[in-house]
Amino acid sequence: MNTVVSFLPNVDAGVGDEIQRTFAAQRETALRLRTSTAKERIAKIQRLLDAVMANREAIYEAAYQDFRKPPAEVDLAEILPIISEAKHAMRSLKRWMKPKGVWPSRTTVGTKSWIQYEPKGRCLIISPWNYPINLTLAPLVSAIAAGNTAILKPSEMTPHMSGLMTRMVRELFPADEVAIFEGEVAVSTALLALPFDHIFFTGAPAIGKVVMAAAAKHLTSVTLELGGKSPTIVDASADLKAAARTIMWGKFTNNGQTCIAPDHIYVHESVKDAFVAECIATLKTSYGESKTQQLQSDSLARVVNQRHTQRINSLLQDATQRGARVLFGGEVSESDCFIQPTLLDNIPGDAKIQSEEIFGPLLPVIGYRDLDAVIAEINAQPKPLALYIWSKNEANIDRVLKRTSAGGTCINHVVMHFVQGNLPFGGVNNSGIGSAHGEFGFKAFSHERAVVRTRFNIATLLYPPYTSMTKRILNMMVKTQ
User: Fold this and answer.
1) d(CA 294, CA 280)
2) DSSP string, 233-280
3) What is the DSSP string of 431-452?
4) Which pLDDT tens digit goes with each residue over 285-341?
5) What is the DSSP string of 362-375?
6) What H or E segment, with its residue span, contains residue 90?
7) Which of 107, 182, 289, 461 lies 20 to 30 Å (CA to CA) from residue 413?
8) Is 225 a catalytic residue?
9) Are 227 and 431 in contact (CB under 8 A)?
10) Which residue(s) pair with 476 in the sheet?
11) What's the CA angle centered on 254, arms 422 and 300, to 5 degrees?
12) For 84-125, what is each residue's pLDDT tens digit?
């Protein structure tokens, strides 16, 4: 019982023992849940959904306490996704659970085949701080839908929202079905030392590598929702007003602390000035014209803490010291965890902001003349979680889609692929492994078991001893495949 504690002296002995006991208790429950019905799973999801709705005001307050997140953004990006995910699962679960029949191949004539979905078992969900409710409970919906147990580890960086979720989860579920542990890195590491059947992690690529390495020790399957520098392209044919309003919304919602927020914009030189003017007008209307007005805005969240404020500010200072020009914003109050929504221009290639994920309210605007050069720049970087295209030119749209790779893409919009529950959401390589949401989330937490049942066994014709008849049958099979 003390293996985790002895391996990790920074973990409180009581917490380490509780983690071990909970993990052990979930083993028997996971075995029992293999035969759970759609009705039983739906009832659990409904309880979770009811608890979210009952705690809506408490979620508003916790989000404000952690980083002054506006209630509208809490509804839009925390509560509505949970409602959508839960209701989609409850409507569709019977169909998802139903075995899927498969046509026999020519070599399996005389058999019946199907795919049977079975729970993976004991699952670990490690969630980030930027959307704590959404990115903890939405994967939990998928885990429950697939018939698993789960242990949740929310971020310590949003203590009010994590504390609220802890209370909710412990009131809703016995620990042998769904448990939750708060704490810092040592708690996450203690959990990762255990042989879970599946790990669902949302966070930075650097930590995703740590999670994947820990999972490899037990050959545990993983879903990794990571991040990266998601580019946006605005070509000369784009609707500039619509592009500016939508990109500014997608970028500065949650103060830029969104894994699929536009990280930087490539704008055709012929429309760059007009586009920037539309962006500035949008920012002034949305958040106020001055730092004072923006500080008082009830529509602008804060950076999560002073350490991240300093990190983002260091990217800003590095860029400007190397010659970047501030087109709008640029003022910082670290004590208030405040950075103005900022547009930057003329950023040199060696600036840190060109290579590091920003994850904050800084937006580089890069002029271009040759779309092929932009595509080459995108392909020279790790594959992003999202890529956005603003254009009315179908040839340009097709060129970008076919010659780049990204987890997801929106054409003449941003971030909306996240809320399309019938699409897989996830990254590719550096930006993630596996998919989530809807049926894809159900499958992420399920094992697709291949089953073949023999009706009449023609394979006996191919058993030893191998005769001339055997050879004739095999020759016929080779030629007719």
Assistant:
1) 13
2) EE-TTS-HHHHHHHHHHHHHGGGG--TTS--EEEEETTTHHHHHHHHH
3) TEES-BSHHHHHHHTEEEEEEE
4) 999 999 999 999 999 999 999 999 999 999 999 999 999 999 999 999 999 999 999
5) EEEEEEES-HHHHH
6) helix 80-97
7) 289
8) yes
9) yes
10) none
11) 140
12) 999 999 999 999 999 999 998 888 888 999 999 999 999 999
DSSP code, position 383 = P
Residues 28-85 pLDDT 10s: 999 999 999 999 999 999 999 999 999 999 999 999 999 999 999 999 999 999 999 9
Which position among 225, 278, 357, 439 bears the catalytic label?
225
Catalytic residue among 85, 177, 259, 410: 259
Q: Under 8 Å CB-to-CB from 467, ≥6 apart: which residues?
A: none
- What CATH class has 231-426? alpha beta
Contact indicator for 419, 81 with CB cutoff of 8 Å: yes
Residue ranges of E strands in 75-172: 100-102, 111-119, 122-126, 149-153
Which of 446, 22, 13 has the alpha carbon at shortest distance from 194? 22
Residues 127 and 155: beta-carbon distance below 8 Å: yes
Select from 101, 145, 154, 97 the least CA-distant residue to 125: 154
- CA–CA dist 160, 166 (Å, integer): 10
State residue 238 phi and psi, 5-degree precision. -65, 150
Domain ranges of the chain: 3-226+433-449, 231-426
Whether pLDDT at 237 is above 60: yes
Tokens standing for residue 412:
């003449």
Tell me the DSSP string of 36-57: --HHHHHHHHHHHHHHHHHTHH
Which residue matches tokens 């005001």? Answer: 57
Residue among 196, 79, 184, 183 nearest 138 (CA): 79
**CATH fold for the domain made of 3-226+433-449:** Aldehyde Dehydrogenase; Chain A, domain 1 (3.40.605)
Beta bridge partners of 70: none
